[in-house]
Amino acid sequence: MAQSLYAVLGVDPTASPSELRAAYRAMARSSHPDVVGEVDGGRSMAQVNDAWRILSDPIRRHRYDQTLAEHQPSIAGNTRVRTGPVPRAQPPEFVPQPPPASARSRRNAWVAGVRAQIGRLATLAGRSATQTLLLSRPRATREIYDRLAGTIVTELMRDTEPRVRAARAGGTAPLDLGVAATLVGIRSLADQIRRDASHSVTPELLMTAELLDRMWDILAHELPSQLTEALGGNPQVANALNR
């Protein structure tokens, strides 16, 4: 009989969300996220990720628990599979696990996932930075700031793999790679602005620099200070342009 998803994560079926997350983080740290291998107990990282994808979502977990109770009565009777009302939402149908993909396709999927996470994080940080700058020292209209922030997001989603490698070299944990890689990208864009400013400092270049500095501060709160320092710290490119 195949292992249950709870067994894959090494937790009891009654585990709380925080216990599930702690177990997943521990296993994720034991293996490179882009290397197909085994974690403790002979579990592959793909199995661990699949278990976390289902069990971390309340609706998917509830549907899985129902399936587990129906098809594995001995487990349901001995380990007290979670039961209770369905969470408030339209629960999707439980979908059986697809056959294992190749190592290359798993790697490509993982990189695409990190890239999407970078885009989401950068978009949220860009909106927050725009709002702060409009309230404190606006240099243009919201439309112009929104356009500049959109360009930053597009640039931050490029070169995902080398930026992830740089983030990992700084000591980033697997679950923090999206945030750290975004910070690495911000510093890369800041360096480009410094080079461009050697010719001329336009108003848009200065606004972009201010957005980058503010976005760094917003995202850096998600990581330990030691890690953000290892990644180079806030580029403070706007201050350099104002000198």
Task: Characterise this structure.
- Helix content is 66%, strand content 0%.
- The protein has 243 residues and is an all-alpha fold.
- The longest helix has 34 residues.
- It has 12 helices and no strands.
- The protein has 2 domains: 75 residues, DnaJ domain (Helix Hairpins); 140 residues, no CATH class.
First-last Cα distance: 68 Å
What is the average of the pLDDT values? 82
Structural class: mainly alpha
Number of domains: 2
Q: Helix and strand succession? A: HHHHHHHHHHHH
Provide a brief overview of the structure.
The protein has 243 residues and is mostly helical.
Helix-strand layout with pairing:
Blueprint: H1 5-9, H2 17-29, H3 45-55, H4 58-71, H5 73-79, H6 103-136, H7 142-156, H8 160-169, H9 177-197, H10 203-220, H11 225-230, H12 237-242
Please supply descriptive tags for the structure shown above.
mainly alpha; 243 residues; 0% strand
